[in-house]
Amino acid sequence: MTVEREKLTYELFGTAVRELAQQVADDGFEPDIILSIARGGLFVAGGLGYALDVKNLHVVNVEFYTGVGETLDLPVMLPPVPNVVDLGRRRVLVADDVADTGKTLKLVHDFCAQHVAEVRSAVIYEKPRSEVKCQYVWRRTDRWIDFPWSVRPPVVRRGHGVGDA
């Protein structure tokens, strides 16, 4: 029995990011910073940065998924951690590819909460079980998602410990 999956192509990804940006613009939210959750959020943040004319992009590295359906007990923020001085009292848009359990987004939201004026999230996909309900979502699904950047195995396989993402 094959499990039905959500499949995102690079072409459809371009549409998704553009439509996410339009949701943000239509809502009147003008982020000062886009904070991407690496790795999948890097692609989303770059597209949103261009579409929303935001050049101030930051990255936070979070390790949670270790394989298909395999996670650590809790997500871990990896160095370098964003400097809270850089976030100081700004409007932050957190970008990621998927809000699955929502634990990664919750970690980043909690990190930002005491340091920024406002924090909102934009994701391509949100799953019903997500602890964080994102303000901007392109599609909702309960399926496993094949992203174009992660559907094929790496060209080079590296270590499998925390921080080797």
UniProtKB/TrEMBL annotation:
One annotated GO molecular function: glycosyltransferase activity
Entry-linked Gene3D superfamilies: 3.40.50.2020
UniProt keyword terms in alphabetical order: Glycosyltransferase, Transferase
Matching InterPro entries: PRTase-like, PRTase_dom
Record protein name field: Phosphoribosyltransferase
Top-level taxonomic group: Bacteria
SUPFAM superfamilies for this protein: PRTase-like
Source organism (scientific name): Nocardiopsis sediminis
Pfam families, A to Z: Pribosyltran
Boundaries of every Phosphoribosyltransferase domain copy: 13-152
Classification of source organism: Bacteria, Bacillati, Actinomycetota, Actinomycetes, Streptosporangiales
